[in-house]
From TrEMBL:
Stored InterPro entries: P-loop_NTPase, Ser/Thr_deHydtase_PyrdxlP-BS, Shikimate/glucono_kinase, Shikimate_kinase/TSH1, Thr_synth_N, Thr_synth_N_sf, Thr_synthase-like, TrpB-like_PALP_sf
SUPFAM superfamilies reported in the protein's UniProt record: P-loop containing nucleoside triphosphate hydrolases, Tryptophan synthase beta subunit-like PLP-dependent enzymes
Domain of life from the UniProt record: Eukaryota
Involved pathway(s): Amino-acid biosynthesis
Residue numbers bearing the N6-(pyridoxal phosphate)lysine modification: K285
UniProt protein name: Threonine synthase N-terminal domain-containing protein
Organism whose genome encodes this protein: Gallus gallus
The keyword Cell inner membrane is annotated on this UniProt entry: no
Organism lineage: Eukaryota, Metazoa, Chordata, Craniata, Vertebrata
Record has Amino-acid biosynthesis as a keyword: yes
A Pfam family: SKI
GO biological process annotation, one example: amino acid biosynthetic process
Entry similarity comment: Belongs to the threonine synthase family.
Residue intervals of the Threonine synthase N-terminal domain: 170-252
Length: 680
């Protein structure tokens, strides 16, 4: 299936030869024999609308097995006909860029196609038809402009083989030492953390796109890029393409304030900002957490209730609460979420936002400790089989994780790093293949890991620059290979989302550069847990330093960067982006563009921003702080979603819990009783 000029007939014949099975061309072998006239004569005889109906009826009467069938370009526009086809076969979509199709049709001297009215351009009708192709396919094959039919046929066969064999795409724990301990995508989404304490990763790595395949996405929207990339990362047996499209459409719709979803903005010189704060809760966490709840709801068994636990250093809390509260109907009844955050370790606006995002199935609990305690407590709860088993037996409720330890949190983040590069190509800043560096404010290593995964999948990222604040354990590690927590205490900073010492997702990266050596990863993390430090082998450090460089930023330099950028450009950086800006200035060599991840909207950190801008009148009320910022007509404007949340929920309260594991477990049980058992 595909548009006119996609090569369906030629590719179909090659596939048929390779499979040694009959090839049927609907145009030549069905329509013309049924009508006793050519397709063009029939179209001229009955007109566009009647032609589509007659064509659909012919398809409904047609049946075949063990064959390769080349549909017409307009077959997918007839619903009943395509339902008939889809029930009886695997539908493969040859996805060829519109500009390539137009060039091919011009060379074939075709200037009109079925459904094209006198006032409609060829480009417009081709774009219009895409919605029908996207509705019906089981498998998409990306076809670049100069791709030979033989290569396309091989890609079709590979894609069909993948479609028919879900067992090849399995996941293992980073600490697994057993060859047969793999899981499927649905399993890892539901389980979150492996039973041995490790994190799930794809057993065979991530798929790699060719340069030609990436280039087919240059003109695509963010949602289209997301669809194509995630289809290759999630097996259709876990989530079919049609369901994935529905999830993506829901995730990246009107809840984002910018139609480009993740726009790239020129800052200064060779520096560009990837704006990741246009989601409903104003941080990059929205990209995963507007999507993950729907993936989770699709993957979980219907026989059990689920309580999703998350530990947050700031932005994750409101994002996960907002995302899961957007579920509907039965999903909202059987899935609840509980966010633990350091009571005194987030910004006042972040806390107000988390409290304001509480809904009937979404709650926040402040913990009298730091983020590392919250995260470690979550891991201990998940690996306590007696406790999790008790919750399942007593309340019919299982626990799940929504932190970036969950694989479904990481996957959507790969998309925006790829999309940023494609946007620079689209804007004419670079040609595809030119390198870029990326600089990312980093605490838990998830965002920068997603950039490294995008690089593995074929995006020409040269270096990933890890930017730390004064909690610079990652900077030291990347420079020396020594991860050392001995004597370190967490320092509260203006950039609380990266106030982290134990970086969870680093484990996935170490597993990657160690070529999947689960035994080594286990040894390293046992040593970290028991002795407070570990050291990488020299060969692994050399591998790491081929991908990563690192630097850190003081509190003074962070505020100075915010002031400097605002003074020269009128643009306000948030505190985390300012950390990345300072490190990028120090470490970039200016031989290629650098994309700085702007991970949150400055509105979330109003006191620090007001201080950086040297505004002395700083009120304690978060809402008053935002109104004060707004009065300066800043660029970008104050985040409307954040304003609305604070306006609606100024007087709401939340639970506060002592830094005690048993207290957290008791809190979990109480909320399970309240939501699932309706005990008040």
């Amino acid at each position: 299936m595909g548009p006119p000029g996609a090569g369906k007939t030629t590719v179909g014949r090659i596939v048929g030869q390779k499979l040694d099975c009959p090839v049927i061309d609907i145009d030549d072998d069905v329509l013309e024999t049924t009508w006793n006239m050519s397709v063009s004569e029939k179209l001229q005889d009955v007109g566009n609308e009647q032609f589509l109906e007659e064509e659909g009826k012919a398809l409904l009467k047609f049946s075949a097995s063990g064959s390769v069938i080349s549909l017409t370009g307009s077959n997918p526009m007839h619903t009943a006909g395509m339902q008939h086809v889809k029930r009886n076969g695997i539908v493969v979509y040859l996805d060829v860029p519109t500009v390539v199709i137009m060039s091919r049709l011009k060379s074939m001297k075709v200037d009109r196609i079925v459904g094209q009215g006198p006032a409609t351009s060829l480009k417009d009708i081709l774009q219009f038809r895409k919605q029908f192709y996207k509705r019906w396919y089981d498998i998409r094959v990306l076809c670049g402009g100069n791709m030979a039919a033989e290569i396309v046929a091989e890609k079709v066969l590979d894609a069909v083989k993948r479609y028919q064999n879900s067992e090849v795409e399995t996941y293992v724990s980073t600490r697994s030492t057993q060859k047969n301990s793999h899981k499927y995508f649905s399993d890892v989404v539901v389980e979150g953390l492996a039973s041995d304490g490790g994190l799930f990763v794809p057993e065979r790595g991530l798929p790699e796109f060719t340069a030609e395949e990436w280039q087919t996405l240059i003109e695509a929207t963010y949602a289209e890029r997301s669809q194509v990339i995630l289809e290759r990362c999630i097996h259709p047996a876990d989530i079919p393409a049609s369901k994935l499209r529905e999830i993506i459409g829901t995730a990246y719709g009107e809840n984002f304030t910018c139609s480009k979803i993740a726009p790239v903005r020129h800052l200064t010189g060779n520096q560009f900002l990837l704006e990741l704060f246009h989601g409903p809760t104003a941080s990059f966490k929205d990209f995963a957490l507007q999507m993950m709840p729907h993936i989770f709801a699709y993957c979980i068994p219907r026989s059990c209730n689920y309580l999703v636990l998350v530990a947050t250093s700031g932005d994750t809390g409101s994002a996960v609460l907002d995302g899961f509260s957007r579920l509907h109907g039965a999903d909202k009844q059987r899935i609840a979420v509980l966010s633990f955050f350091p009571e005194d370790g987030v910004s006042p606006i972040q806390k107000s936002q988390m409290i304001g995002c509480q809904k009937e199935n979404a709650w926040s609990v402040g913990v009298k400790s730091d983020f590392d305690f919250c995260q470690t407590a979550m891991k201990k709860i998940f690996t306590n089989s007696d406790y999790t088993g008790y919750l399942t037996v007593e309340y019919g409720t299982a626990l799940a994780a929504a932190n970036s330890i969950n694989w479904a949190r990481l996957l959507p983040q790969i998309v925006y790093h790829a999309s940023a590069y494609l946007d620079l190509v689209h804007q004419g800043i670079i040609a595809f293949g030119d390198p870029v560096d990326v600089c990312i404010p980093t605490g838990n290593f998830g965002n920068i890991l997603a950039a490294l995964y995008a690089k593995m999948m074929g995006i020409p990222i040269r270096k990933c620059i890890c930017a730390s604040n004064e909690n610079n354990v990652l900077t030291d590690f990347i420079r020396t290979g020594i991860y050392d927590l001995r004597g370190r205490k967490l320092v509260p900073t203006f950039s609380p989302a990266i106030d982290i010492l134990k970086s969870s997702n680093l484990e996935r990266y170490l597993h990657l550069i160690a070529d999947g050596d689960g035994q080594l990863v286990t040894q390293l993390y046992d040593q970290l847990e028991n002795q407070g430090h570990f050291q990488l082998r020299k060969d692994l450090l050399e591998k790491l330093q081929q991908d990563l460089v690192a630097g850190w930023c003081s509190e003074e330099d962070c505020l100075a960067a915010i002031h400097s950028v605002y003074s020269t450009t009128g643009y306000i950086l948030d505190t985390h982006t300012a950390v990345a800006k300072v490190v990028a200035d120090r470490l970039q060599d200016r031989t290629c563009p650098i994309i700085i991840s702007s991970t949150a909207h400055y509105s979330k950190f109003a006191p620090a921003i007001l201080r950086a801008l040297r505004i002395t009148e700083i009120k304690q009320n978060p809402l008053s702080q935002l109104h004060l910022l707004s009065s300066y007509s800043p660029l970008p404007p104050v985040h409307w979603g954040l304003l609305e949340t604070l306006k609606k929920n100024e007087n709401e309260g939340h639970r506060v819990c002592a830094a005690d594991l048993n207290m957290l477990m008791s809190c979990i049980e109480t909320l399970i009783q309240k939501h699932f058992m309706k005990v008040f």
